[in-house]
C-alpha cells in the first residue's frame, strides 16, 4: 500500500481544494476526481486530475488505486438534492476506502450539534438533529462509523478563505465576490458569538492529522476552534480594516426568506441555520490540541485580507469560475 498518495473528491471546492493543494505541497501525490477535468482551471496546482463521477463507486475505486488517503469533500452545489445524493456519494468513497485500505477523511461541521450538546461541545458531545442538514450530517458520520473503514472527521465552523465557495456565509452574505466591499449583510445577533474556520488552517490541520496515521484510532473525530467572534462584531471589523475604510453593516433579511422559498429552494436551508446566529455554539478543540499540541491558526486580519483578495474584493488575483 502506497503511504503518500491521496485521492481528493471535491478538489474544485473550498475545503477539497485547500486540502489537495496542502497535501501536494507536503509531498503527497494527489489525484483529484472530476467529471470533466478539461474544464478545470489548473494553474500548475500540482494535482493529477482524473475523470470520474463521485456517484459511481467503480470510478472512485479506480481513481483510489494505490492511495492511502481519500478526502471526501464533495457536495451537491447549493445544497440541492442533499437528501438524495449525499449518502450515495459517501457510500462510493467508503467502497473505495475499503477496497484500497485507505483512511477516509470527511470535513465535518457544527450542524451535528443542537442544544443538548451545550455551548462548548467537544468531539464526543451528543448529536441531536436540529435541522435537515444536521440530520444528514449526523447520518454521514454514522455511516462512516458503521462502515468499519479507517475514518477521520474534522469538524469546523463556517468556512472562509481565498477560494471560499458560494455555500459560505462569508461569500454569500457578508461580501459579494468580485466587487469592492461597501456594504455587509450581517446575519448575526449583536452580542452573540459565532465560530469561523479559515480554509488554509483547516487544510493544515487535516494534513497534520493524516501525517500521524499510525497514532490515530480507527474512527477518529476532532473539532477545530478556528476563529471565535465573541460578540459577532469582530469579523465585520476585520473586513473594514482590510478594505481600509468604514463599511456599512445591514441586517440580513431573515424575514424575507419564507417568501423567497418557493422560487429559491436554498432559502429554507439558510433559514434553518439561523439558530447558529442566535445562540453561541463554540466547539471545543481540546481533543485536537491534546493530540497535535496546538491548532494551526492564522491571525484574523491576515486571514480576512487573503480571503478578500482571493474573492476579488481587494486588488490582487480575482476568483476563477471554479472557485466561487
From TrEMBL:
Protein name according to UniProt: NAD(P)-binding domain-containing protein
Pfam families membership: NAD_binding_10
Record PANTHER family: BIFUNCTIONAL POLYMYXIN RESISTANCE PROTEIN ARNA, UDP-D-APIOSE_UDP-D-XYLOSE SYNTHASE 2
Span of domain NAD(P)-binding: 10-159
Superkingdom per UniProt: Bacteria
SUPFAM superfamilies: NAD(P)-binding Rossmann-fold domains
Amino acid at each position: 500500500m502506497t503511504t503518500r498518495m491521496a485521492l481528493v473528491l471535491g478538489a474544485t471546492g473550498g475545503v477539497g481544494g485547500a486540502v489537495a493543494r496542502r497535501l501536494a505541497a507536503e509531498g503527497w501525490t494527489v489525484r483529484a476526481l472530476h467529471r470533466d477535468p478539461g474544464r478545470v482551471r489548473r494553474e500548475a496546482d500540482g494535482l493529477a486530475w482524473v475523470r470520474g463521477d463521485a456517484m459511481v463507486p467503480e470510478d472512485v475505486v479506480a481513481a483510489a488505486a494505490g492511495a492511502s488517503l481519500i478526502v471526501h469533500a464533495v457536495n451537491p452545489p447549493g445544497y440541492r438534492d442533499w437528501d438524495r445524493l449525499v449518502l450515495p456519494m459517501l457510500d462510493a468513497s467508503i467502497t473505495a476506502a475499503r477496497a484500497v485500505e485507505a483512511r477516509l477523511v470527511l470535513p465535518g461541521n457544527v450542524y451535528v450539534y443542537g442544544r443538548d450538546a451545550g455551548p462548548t461541545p467537544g468531539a464526543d458531545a451528543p448529536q441531536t438533529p436540529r435541522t435537515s442538514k444536521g440530520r444528514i450530517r449526523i447520518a454521514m458520520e454514522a455511516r462512516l462509523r458503521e462502515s468499519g473503514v479507517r475514518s477521520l472527521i474534522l469538524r469546523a465552523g463556517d468556512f472562509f478563505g481565498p477560494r471560499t465557495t458560494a455555500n459560505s456565509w462569508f461569500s454569500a452574505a457578508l461580501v459579494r465576490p468580485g466587487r469592492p466591499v461597501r456594504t455587509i449583510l450581517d446575519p448575526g445577533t449583536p452580542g452573540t458569538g459565532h465560530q469561523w474556520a479559515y480554509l488554509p488552517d483547516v487544510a493544515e490541520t487535516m494534513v497534520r492529522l493524516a501525517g500521524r496515521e499510525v497514532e490515530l484510532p480507527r474512527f477518529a473525530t476532532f473539532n477545530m476552534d478556528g476563529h471565535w467572534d465573541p460578540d459577532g462584531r469582530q469579523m465585520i471589523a476585520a473586513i473594514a480594516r482590510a478594505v481600509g475604510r468604514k463599511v456599512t453593516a445591514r441586517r440580513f433579511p431573515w424575514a424575507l426568506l419564507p417568501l423567497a422559498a418557493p422560487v429559491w429552494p436554498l432559502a429554507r436551508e439558510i433559514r434553518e441555520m439561523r439558530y447558529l446566529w442566535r445562540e453561541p455554539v463554540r466547539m471545543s478543540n481540546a481533543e485536537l490540541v491534546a493530540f497535535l499540541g496546538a491548532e494551526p491558526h492564522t491571525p484574523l486580519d491576515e486571514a480576512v485580507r487573503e480571503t478578500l483578495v482571493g474573492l476579488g474584493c481587494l486588488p490582487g488575483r480575482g476568483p476563477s469560475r471554479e472557485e466561487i
